[in-house]
Amino acid sequence: MTPPHSPPYRPSLTRYLTQHWQKLLGAVIWLAVIGAYTLYARAHDLTPVAAVQTLANTISGTVYGPLIYILIYVLRPLLFFPSTLLTIAGGFLFGTVWGVIYTVIGSNTSAMVAYLVGSWFGKGVLDS
């Protein structure tokens, strides 16, 4: 029970932003990705299936495809994207052997990025 003369608790916007800025940044990135996809699909008159096929053909048909795949895998923890979808896509795009190799490289680098981000932004959080 609150004392009769205390003002009601009102959380401030700055406190909210300092506590939840990572979630807001993730939401902004996802909105940018969805917006870019929508603009690209409308400009080229693509259905969602045709857009995925174009992306798959681009990644599997170029020399830079494995690098693009690994880069997407590395950025995965920052975008809150599930790794299972990328792992399955690696097998479909590059075959069993090369898909496993590219996935192992991408997942290990992704884990390193997640660790570095967590250690950088988590400094002092658990200090007693």
**Distance N to C terminus:** 30 Å
Strand content: under 5%
The quaternary organization reads as: single chain
Number of helix segments?
A: 5
How big is the Rg? 21 Å
- The total count of strands amounts to 0
Give the % helix.
Answer: over 70%
Structural class: mainly alpha
Choose one word for the global shape. flat
User: Main β-sheet: number of strands, strand sense, barrel status?
Assistant: none
Low-confidence stretches: none
**Could you state the order of secondary-structure elements as H and E?**
HHHHH
Mean pLDDT: 84
Description:
The structure is a single chain. Helix content is 77%, strand content 0%. It has 128 residues and is mostly helical.
Please summarize what this structure is.
The chain has 128 residues and is mainly α. Helix content is 77%, strand content 0%.
